[in-house]
Design brief:
Chain lengths: 353, 178
């Protein structure tokens, strides 16, 4: 009798006597189940199928360290033995699917460990925003002294900064847009203009430097928590994970806690100082809440937190894509809240008449 | 001034500098170690009709690799350490090539280990002298690397990748006839 060799491929385990295939165990044709087995292999454990085949022979040669856990095995360098998956009823495209599934699990696992990076990025994004607003307010106040009409025409400080960077003086901005010459304001000295241009330049640069940061957050949030991200936004998903201390923890929090995440100060104020309870934390940033009528915000926040709790569980445990259903349900609920709110407002009006 | 490179990355630099051992035949498969974001791997994918198994350790780079792999159905991504050959062995088909670009101190050991495990027809090692030993002369590092890879097969080509990649060399090994 010749020597026996064991080789595990993505679609099955194969036992050879020299170069002849003696026995096989083919995995079920399901990417998830194949990925499960490959995860087991990654963890250095033995597959059930491998144990079964190894039990049928007395001694065995194996190519990997992991398999020496089986009884009576020796690790040897041997030429690669490969089977054609089609001959065993498995489509080659299944390998691609299983590899994607496995890689996705690995990436997601290690990224949520690395969610500290995400936390830093989100914290920096918030700070960058704050700095930018301060600088913007200053630019608006300062430029208004010399060119009040231009400041009024700009939709926000970013636009104003861009005009100043592109054209320079108020005169040039006016010409570029074909506006009438100024009647108000005082002309700027060259030094004043220099200083204002410097401020405008930093403001524009600041905004530009935020773009890669935002795309990083977007990318990581989408990968770790696709359901929460689709339901809310990358920024909110990242902040929720940050406040909960990781995706798994977020997934184990009740919706009522998720609703308050990021409003911890207000919660304690409520508990200790008789202040009103907060209605929302991080999720306030979602337009569905902050654009709602103040009286409706609490209700919508409650509904949204409930959906986020479900989405977080899907992201952390099952990996199912349920975001669109959740989103539809949430939107329906928000509409209902707004409708009831309008009726309430009308009733009150009617009562006053 | 820089010459235009024919191909992509270090393999492109190797070809531009006169290397001609990259000769994939139809249907030949590649094991790519150190795929990073997958730029060269996807480029390779478009050149070849075989399967490319791309191994990358960093999960952050792995994100981009994963994105490319979703588009290319013969690019098989694996996120993990190229030292643990057993972990990705199930994905690796019979190979035409091993191509390795890993800037690690033990890059030569990783290479030998993979070539022995997967017995490709031919194997490419992009050696980065500075990650093996910063203080030593690159030439002597390449010399040592060349000697060490003899363990895996017969060295058929050694090409410097200057000026495209400073202190890099490509070492090509054939395993056929062993």
């Amino acid at each position: 009798m010749g020597s026996c060799f064991l080789e595990t491929e993505w679609f099955g385990v194969f036992l050879y006597e020299d170069d002849t295939l003696q026995a096989k165990r083919i995995f079920p044709p399901d990417a998830g189940q194949i990925a499960d087995r490959l995860e087991t292999i990654e963890n250095g454990e033995i597959l059930y199928e491998e144990k079964e085949l190894a039990g049928t022979v007395e001694t065995l040669h194996v190519p990997d360290e992991r398999l020496t856990k089986l009884p009576n095995t020796t690790k040897t360098t041997q030429p690669l033995r490969r089977q054609d998956p089609e001959e065993h009823g498995r489509d080659a495209s299944l390998r691609h699917e299983a590899a994607l599934e496995l890689a996705q699990r690995t990436v997601r696992g290690s990224l949520s460990e690395q969610s500290r990076h995400l936390e830093q990025a989100v914290a920096y994004l918030d700070e960058a925003h704050e700095t930018e607003n301060l600088m913007g307010e200053r630019l608006v106040a300062w430029f208004r002294l010399s060119n009040p009409e231009i400041v009024d025409k700009a939709s926000d400080h970013q636009e104003l900064a861009r005009w100043i960077v592109d054209h320079g003086t108020g005169e040039a901005i006016r010409q570029a847009h074909g506006w009438d010459p100024s009647e108000l304001g005082t002309p700027l000295s060259p030094q004043e203009l220099d200083a204002i241009e410097g401020l405008a330049t930093s403001l524009v640069e600041q905004a530009e430097s935020r773009a890669p940061l935002e795309s990083f957050i977007e990318e990581v949030a989408n990968e770790i928590a696709p359901n929460i991200t689709k339901l809310t936004s990358a920024g909110i998903a990242a902040r929720l994970i940050h406040h909960a201390g990781g995706l798994r923890r977020l997934a184990m929090e009740p919706a009522s806690t998720i609703q308050m995440l990021g409003a911890e100060d207000a919660v304690f104020k409520h508990l200790t100082e008789n202040a009103p309870p907060p209605k929302h934390g991080v999720i306030f940033q979602h337009p569905m809440i902050h654009n709602a009528h103040p009286k409706d915000r609490g209700k919508i926040a409650r509904a949204m937190a409930a959906k986020i709790a479900i989405a977080a569980r899907a992201d952390a445990f099952t990996g199912n894509d349920i975001a669109s259903e959740l989103k539809a349900e949430l939107e329906a609920r928000a509409k209902e809240v707004a409708r009831v709110g309008r009726r309430r407002a009308m009733k009150r009006k009617g009562g006053n008449r | 001034m820089m010459q235009r490179m024919q191909g992509q990355g270090k393999l492109g630099a190797y070809q531009t500098n006169g290397g001609d051992a990259w000769d994939p035949e139809p249907g030949e498969n590649v094991l790519y170690l150190g795929a990073a974001e997958g730029a060269t791997a996807s480029w390779m994918c478009k050149q070849l009709d075989g399967t490319i198994v791309a191994v990358e350790k960093s999960p952050v780079a792995g994100l981009s690799l994963l994105r490319s792999a979703r588009e290319l159905d013969h690019l098989i991504p694996y996120i993990g350490d190229a030292r643990n050959t057993g972990s990705y062995a199930p994905f690796v088909p019979s190979l035409g090539f091993v191509y390795q670009d890993i800037a690690q101190r033990d890059q030569v050991d990783i290479f030998v280990k993979n070539v022995e495990r997967f017995s490709p027809r031919r194997a490419f090692l992009a050696v980065k002298a500075r990650s093996i030993a910063v203080e030593r002369d690159p030439k002597s590092v390449f010399e040592d690397a060349r000697e060490a890879v003899e363990e895996a097969g017969r060295v058929v080509d050694v090409v410097s990748l200057d000026p495209f990649h400073k202190d890099h060399a490509m070492i090509v090994v054939d395993t056929v006839g062993e």
